[in-house]
Amino acid sequence: MIPELLAPAGNLDKLKIAYKYGADAVYVGGVRFGLRSGADNFSNEDLAVAAKFAHDHGKKLYVTLNAFLHNQDMEGLGEFVAYLETIGIDALIVSDLGVVTEVTQYCNIPVHLSTQASCLNVSSAKVWKALGVERVIVGRELTVEETSTIKREAGMEVEMFIHGAMCSAYSGNCTISNYTAGRDSNRGGCKQSCRFDYSMESSEEDLTFMSSKDLMGINYLPEFIESEIDSVKIEGRMKSELYVAITCKSYRTAIDASVAGGFEKTAAWEEELNRAPNRGFTEASLRKEAEDDSISRVFKENPNKYNFLGTVLDVDFGKMFIHLKNPIRKGEKIEIMTFLGENKVCQFDQMSDYVGNNIEAGRQNQIIVVDPVEGVLSGMVVRAFIEGVAV
């Protein structure tokens, strides 16, 4: 079977990029009830637009309700999920037992159990299944083999994280931010206190002794497929458009190659994934229980090796329109990320603004007009060019 590629999106622009770069499904959060209060998140109107876009392109859209809610947080939940059913949301991602109960009373949307619930064994999965859960997003402490056992013996779909930030706490069940910043990690307020430098008497330098490296499982895709894992998930609803494009394209390419029988461990995919900001990479628990080498003790984040320049807004009337997110100068070498295959490296010797005035440089949030590049389509991501292998 071919696993679903599930990608994050913090807003509508990122959602469209995820789908266009190969995601089969995208997960997003509404204004309330989720764990990423720092993301842009989606209003009810945004969710309706997102659902229509997804279904018009043969894709799926999931909404997170994965916060651990107190009594006062439950107000309005029933009405919200009833609304989500009217716009055709494909699944709800839930971690709290009370929320599962409430959701199943107010709508018939399939329920996926969040990794926050730390489902780690067959018996637990069977209980959740009896309560109406159709898919388990297993705790990130499990191996692919253990997850396959849950799928087989519990008789339900399973989903695993394959890429992105990791918690040193059990699947995110952490209260450090509660004590350091007065913000509840399990209700959307994580301050990422584990990423901070801490002074220790036993060390002359500050240590990030609680900060996990990021997960990268692209080289283990054949094992995911052989084990019939239903969905592989990329973390990162607060990450950039460039991160979404890089991860979706890389994993889409690798999944398709693996299914076609042409998968080989290749440095090209790893190099591409390493071009987005990261904390170093680990395989975590995908094959065996994670060990101390998965922690970044002295951490300096790898910088974004590409500057995100913008997206192609349209290609029409013999011109290409680019919506800039960062400045670009005439003659600067850039790279346009195609949806499949090799990227396009080019430079623009003529550049104008939207009303036709010739310009030497484009500024942030400006729409520039340039000559079209063969094979470039609306929605493609534009980034600064750096020598290297492209996927």
List keywords for this structure.
single chain; 391 residues; alpha/beta; eight-stranded parallel β-barrel; seven-stranded antiparallel beta sheet; 10 helices; 21% strand
Which helices and strands, and how do they pair?
Blueprint: E1 4-8, H1 12-20, E2 25-29, H2 44-56, E3 60-65, H3 77-86, E4 91-94, H4 97-106, E5 111-113, H5 122-130, E6 133-137, H6 144-154, E7 157-164, H7 176-181, E8 214-216, H8 221-226, E9 231-234, H9 241-259, H10 267-273, E10 281-282, E11 308-316, E12 319-324, E13 328-329, E14 334-337, E15 344-346, E16 352-353, E17 361-362, E18 367-370, E19 381-384
Helix pairs in contact: 1-2, 1-9, 3-4, 5-6
Q: Could you describe the 3D structure shown?
A:
Helix content is 26%, strand content 21%. By secondary structure, it is an alpha/beta fold. It has helices spanning 12-20, 44-56, 77-86, 97-106, 122-130, 144-154, 176-181, 221-226, 241-259, 267-273, and strands at residues 4-8, 25-29, 60-65, 91-94, 111-113, 133-137, 157-164, 214-216, 231-234, 281-282, 308-316, 319-324, 328-329, 334-337, 344-346, 352-353, 361-362, 367-370, 381-384. Helix 5 (122-130) links the parallel strand 5 (111-113) and strand 6 (133-137). It is built from 10 helices and 19 strands.
Q: Please, what is the average pLDDT?
A: 88
Number of strands: 19
Helix content: 25-40%
Strand content: 15-25%
Q: Low-confidence parts lasting 5 or more residues at pLDDT below 50?
A: none
- Rounded to the nearest angstrom, the radius of gyration is 22 Å
Helix count? 10
- Describe the largest sheet: 8 strands, parallel, barrel
Structural class from helices and strands? alpha/beta
Strand order of the largest sheet: 1-2-3-4-5-6-7-9
Question: How would you sum up the global shape?
Answer: globular
Instruction: Spell the H/E element sequence.
Output: EHEHEHEHEHEHEHEHEHHEEEEEEEEEE
Termini, distance in Å?
24 Å
